């Protein structure tokens, strides 16, 4: 399976870039700009994903989802989290009805 390995490799690279000079890479520059810049990129990529879906171009959609996942991983790294944390949560939810899982969440 390719997914866990590629996510781990990307996460390792993101962690390495977290303290790098902002001139050294795009990711380092995002970390240097702070959480608001990262959140803006996640929102931008989410909107582009929605538009690609509406356009019906599957390759464009895959590329936009890749951008969204990547920037979501940058956000996770900002918070000291890794894709494994998300994968564990998905594993926890496996076999649980979406309605049951949502009902079990604490109410805000």
Q: Based on the coordinates given, report the CATH architecture.
A: Orthogonal Bundle
How large a portion of the residues is in β-strands, by DSSP E? under 5%
Strand pairing plus helix content: what structural class?
A: mainly alpha
Give the rounded overall mean pLDDT: 93
The percentage helix is over 70%
Give the terminus-to-terminus CA distance.
37 Å
CATH C-level: Mainly Alpha
CATH topology: Helix Hairpins
Shape: globular
The CATH superfamily appears as MazG-like
| Number of H/I helices | 6
Instruction: Provide the low-confidence segments as ranges.
Output: none
- Cα-atom Rg, whole angstroms? 16 Å
Number of domains: 1
E-strand count: 0
Q: What summary fits the major beta sheet?
A: none
* Succession of helices and strands: HHHHHH
How would you sum up this structure, described in words?
- The protein has 108 residues and is mainly α.
- The protein is built from six helices and no strands.
- The protein has helices at 3-17, 26-33, 35-55, 58-78, 83-93, 98-104.
- It is globular, with a radius of gyration of 16 Å.
- The relative contact order is 0.13.
Key structural traits:
77% helix, 108 residues, mainly alpha, Helix Hairpins, single chain, globular
List the helices and strands and how they pair.
Blueprint: H1 3-17, H2 26-33, H3 35-55, H4 58-78, H5 83-93, H6 98-104
Short description:
The chain is mainly α and 108 residues long.
